[in-house]
Specification:
The complex is a heterodimer. By secondary structure, chain A is an alpha/beta fold. Chain A is 35% helix and 24% strand. Chain A is globular, with a radius of gyration of 20 Å. In chain A, helix 3 packs across helix 4 and helix 4 packs across helix 5. The longest helix of chain A has 17 residues. Chain B is mainly alpha-helical. Chain B is built from 11 helices and no strands. Chain B is globular. The model of chain B has no long low-confidence stretch (mean pLDDT 91). The chains are: A alpha/beta, B mainly alpha. Chains A and B meet through helix 2 and helix 3 of A and helix 1, helix 5 and helix 11 of B.
């Protein structure tokens, strides 16, 4: 039996939130509403693949990533990373993964070196080799040596996100979770990050789970793509396979956006809702 | 061996991170130190002014030392309590909570690192306050048992580590109000533990509650050491009881933390913004 890098087996996740629609009576507990984030998701990611999860905000992409990150527990079903169950064996999973999220979460007054050294120590890396690795990755991502020691709060969003990418790769994870890593970046920074992901895919034995709502990015980087809509997998295939689901119009090859509209009946913008 | 080295590196991550936080937020640190210092001086001046307040002849030097011991011990114990209880609140405020919780570091290692920093930070801070207060008052510690006092302080630290762990779950359970709840918990300990007055001054029902606070025993024993020179050997039963109770509270704290962390992961409360 082949071991997958990542397996989702009928994973369901529901959140309970306060219902803010109705009037709340004083001293009475607010009504609760159930929001289904993921509905019986089943999919496998093969080792060495860049697997894309495409969907608008609120489709369940971040929930998917946070479940693999052991930050959330599924209500039912199972998630396995190289055979390790995220709920039963979270420590083994944590040693295999790292994550770059849409919001570069750092100690903002710390420098990139201080933030990355904190991460290196959390992952048990020796100081000397970690320092050499972090400098090499940041330089490769186009960050200048002079920025390594300045507080993160003085850096642009693009530079902060590059430090986040460096932190993600610092621990040489075998499964890298990229949660909208290029959202909000300028075109130049976006290209740098995408080139680095491609390079990692070619030179390292890493599997990448990439969530994005950037159709072009998904098309360019991913080996396989799942389109997520309202917590369900609407389609899953290689990019060309997804495009083949939709007939071409006026002789133009369909884009992934055409596929999304055809499968869900909505444009991407219509489906956007706050997460 | 590799596992142990990795855990030690993990624990050191929290020590180094907290030292860096102090360096980067040094302005806040200075303000907080001045506040604590002025607070200690103000409380101690109550002792200095008691003769004038009451119009009767009193042993002012004894009163000053009595209040000073209370305020200094409280400064130290509350630093430990806050440093540990705020470990979640800080992460949430900085936005790093998700990153720290997905790292392969066990929660005991997380707490060991936070505790080592808290004890070192508490000692340095208390010594600085003591040094400045000594410039204002003539302290007579000639007959004091200083070794016994240090022993009591370390024994008391163990219990406060446990209480800090228990309070640290509040920001996990209540992302918006949890940090304020830890302040309320500290204020209750201050009220009942005989920091500025004998516990016997309190109403009977509060005296009963005070028996559950480790600070009650630490402060009472510290006063015995510093004001009355009580020998170390007589303190040993209290030291042993405090350490045993402290280990028990830490074990309960870790168990509660584990349950609450699981609940937070189930309910989606580990988000940075809450």
């Amino acid at each position: 039996m082949t071991m997958h890098a990542l397996e989702f087996e009928q994973v369901r996740k529901v959140f309970t939130r306060k219902d803010k629609s109705g009037k709340r009576r004083p001293l009475r507990r607010a009504k609760q509403e159930q929001v289904v984030a993921l509905e019986e998701i089943s999919l496998n990611v093969e080792r060495g693949q860049v697997f894309g999860v495409l969907g608008p905000n609120g489709s369940g992409k971040s929930t998917l990533i946070r479940l693999v990150s052991t930050l959330l527990l599924p209500d039912s079903g199972a998630i396995r990373v190289f055979g390790h169950d995220v709920e039963k064996d979270p420590f083994a999973v944590k040693r295999l993964i790292n994550r770059v999220s849409v919001d570069a979460a750092f100690f903002k007054k710390f420098s990139p070196l201080e933030n990355l050294m904190y991460a290196a120590r959390l992952y048990g890396l020796p100081q000397r080799s970690a320092q050499a690795t972090m400098r090499a990755i940041m330089t490769r991502l186009g960050l200048k040596e002079s920025t390594f020691s300045q507080p993160m709060e003085h850096m642009s969003r693009g530079m902060q996100q590059k430090v986040a990418v460096a932190r993600g790769f610092l621990t040489a994870p075998v499964l890298l979770l990229l949660d909208e890593p290029t959202t909000g970046l300028d075109p130049h920074s976006k290209r740098d990050v995408q080139a680095f992901v491609r390079e990692i895919r070619e030179t390292h034995d890493a599997t990448v789970l990439l969530t994005t709502h950037d159709m072009e990015e998904a098309d360019r980087l991913c080996d396989r793509i799942a389109i997520l809509d309202e917590g369900k997998v609407a389609a899953l295939d290689v990019p060309d396979g997804l495009k083949a689901l939709v007939p071409s119009s006026n002789g133009d090859r369909p884009s992934l956006e055409d596929v999304f509209i055809a499968l869900t009946g909505h444009t991407f913008e219509e489906k956007e809702k706050p997460e | 061996m590799n596992g142990l080295v990795r855990e030690m590196r993990g624990a050191y991550a929290f020590v180094e991170r907290n030292v860096n936080l102090i360096k980067r937020y040094w302005g806040w640190e200075v303000v907080w130190l001045i506040y604590s210092l002025v607070n200690s001086l103000a409380v101690t001046y109550i002792g200095a002014g008691m003769e004038r307040i009451s119009g009767q002849a009193l042993d002012t030097e004894y009163l000053i030392t009595y209040l000073l011991v209370g305020t200094l011990i409280w400064q130290y114990l509350s630093v430990i309590f806050y440093a540990i209880s705020e470990m979640i609140a800080w992460e949430r405020w900085e936005g790093t909570i998700e990153y720290t919780f997905m790292a392969p570091v066990s929660r005991p290692t997380h707490l060991v690192g936070t505790t080592l920093f808290a004890i070192a930070y508490g000692i340095v801070r208390t010594l600085v306050i003591l040094a400045v207060v000594a410039l204002f008052f003539r302290l007579n510690l000639g007959g004091a048992n200083l070794i016994g006092a240090v022993l009591m302080l370390l024994a008391g630290s163990v219990s406060f580590v446990g209480l800090g762990i228990l309070a640290a779950v509040l920001p996990l359970l209540y992302p918006e109000r949890g940090a304020q709840m830890t302040n309320a918990a500290a204020a209750i300990l201050l009220l009942i533990s005989g920091v500025y007055y004998p516990v016997e001054t309190l109403p009977r029902w509060l005296q009963a509650v005070a028996q559950a606070s480790p600070a009650t025993y630490v402060i009472e024993a510290m006063r015995d050491c510093l004001l009355r020179g009580r020998p170390t050997v007589e303190l040993l039963p209290t030291v042993g009881a405090l350490i045993a109770a402290g280990i028990g509270v830490i074990a309960v704290g870790l168990a509660v933390f584990r349950v609450v962390e699981r609940y937070a992961k189930r309910a989606g409360r580990l988000k940075r913004s809450g």
